[in-house]
Prior knowledge:
Helix content of chain A: 25-40%
CATH topology of chain A: Peroxisomal Thiolase, Chain A, domain 1
Mean pLDDT of chain A: 97
Number of helices of chain A: 14
Shape of chain A: globular
Number of strands of chain B: 8
Shape of chain B: globular
CATH architecture of chain A: 3-Layer(aba) Sandwich
Structural class of chain A: alpha/beta
Strand order of the largest sheet of chain B: 6-5-4-7-8
CATH architecture of chain B: Beta Barrel
Strand content of chain B: 35-45%
Radius of gyration of chain B: 16 Å
Strand content of chain A: 15-25%
Number of domains of chain B: 1
Number of strands of chain A: 11
Largest sheet of chain A: 9 strands, mixed
CATH class of chain B: Mainly Beta
Radius of gyration of chain A: 19 Å
Distance between the termini of chain A: 20 Å
Strand order of the largest sheet of chain A: 3-2-4-7-1-8-11-10-9
Oligomer: heterodimer
Structural class of chain B: mainly beta
Number of domains of chain A: 1
Distance between the termini of chain B: 39 Å
Amino acid sequence: xxxxxxxxxxxxxxxxxxxxxxxxxxxxxxxxxxxxxxxxxxxxxxxxxxxxxxxxxxxxxxxxxxxxxxxxxxxxxxxxxxxxxxxxxxxxxxxxxxxxxxxxxxxxxxxxxxxxxxxxxxxxxxxxxxxxxxxxxxxxxxxxxxxxxxxxxxxxxxxxxxxxxxxxxxxxxxxxxxxxxxxxxxxxxxxxxxxxxxxxxxxxxxxxxxxxxxxxxxxxxxxxxxxxxxxxxxxxxxxxxxxxxxxxxxxxxxxxxxxxxxxxxxxxxxxxxxxxxxxxxxxxxxxxxxxxxxxxxxxxxxxxxxxxxxxxxxxxxxxxxxxxxxxxxxxxxxxxxxxxxxxxxxxxxxxxxxxxxxxxxxxxxxxxxxxxxxxxxxxxxxxxxxxxx
Amino acid sequence: xxxxxxxxxxxxxxxxxxxxxxxxxxxxxxxxxxxxxxxxxxxxxxxxxxxxxxxxxxxxxxxxxxxxxxxxxxxxxxxxxxxxxxxxxxxxxxxxxxxxxxxxxxxxxxxxxxxxxxxxxxxxxxxxxxx
Lengths: 389, 131
């Protein structure tokens, strides 16, 4: 087993890219990642893992492994599409890490790509809702946003909070996105605006719901032998893990406990020989404040019922104890569905290389990314470590 | 269309039929397939009362294709008196009537109209107990 490194990372801006196809976006992301390793010959790529959640419905294309490998100039390379709803990106990275660690290839490309703006919002809501249990939830018109809203209302009830307790999450996300030229929403918001925002799925309001948009992000994963041929700081992919849970939210013993989130985080950290106290910067699925709060609590960063209070005290800001959404998170960088998990890691690579600009977490050496499929049905966690040569 | 799909689910959809574990007495809903380590008769069918109380609720304003005619609509997780949590729409109520802990009962309503050549899908919803 070799150590595994992330030697290149790039992404397109998150936007409504009406003029650009899924293939165009994929091409730009892969070229951006390869531009970071000019010495790397593309013929060394031995596998491509495409992360995509909605391709059949929203982009009218399946078999995205071969299709997008061809589009980016890697025709003929073994290529597969990995689908785990919103966890697709982390799941694809996990597959690539295993392929390289096992020695089955020296270089693998992880490509997250999603194109959602060719169809209208009702089609998007229906496509996203396929990640619920179709019989127990989907047929009743339940959406993912509805499920998070149900959890938010229960959380507020159990802990005695008002809805605006979650305002610090989108406020932090927007403050960081305002400094990210690739973000969907490059402006700040205030807690006062949060209180006045219109309802989407009560008690979730417009400023506590992410927008799903188009984008692509790519990572180049390599063996230690290849990584050591390169110059500059190295980012080691120290541990990855997948967790799964009961699809129907109501069938879980405790809906407010994201068991897959906890399991995948702890297994990934264990594989990295690290603990949660070592993590200095993180990316979580944060389409809503409740989503980030439940993950922070389920993983064990904070006691149940306390994550929003820590967020209000500055814990999720770049200078805090658990910096979150330094590129804007799902809420303000944008939610790229199956590609979000790859965007997360692109940002954490920037953090560990110390090139994250105004939202840089000082001295960050250990980072954790976790993306969720559905309401924590699948969780994919990656632990990254900065190494000095 | 999916006529066979909706027909297969009729016991749960129309009668709120769940399953009871013959050994432990645990009741679950909706019915599930036989898991590893279980026998085909580990779980037996059981008709649920349809009575329960609201565990949580939300009113949806951004809805999937096929449901736009109903929007905005309330959805809930309902804790049935037999124990299981069930996710469904609420009906015959206004948003201001709703609160966690409110007693509700099952009724049969149209879930979705799948279009001109499709089927009208009926099933369970819940409403505040009328008494």
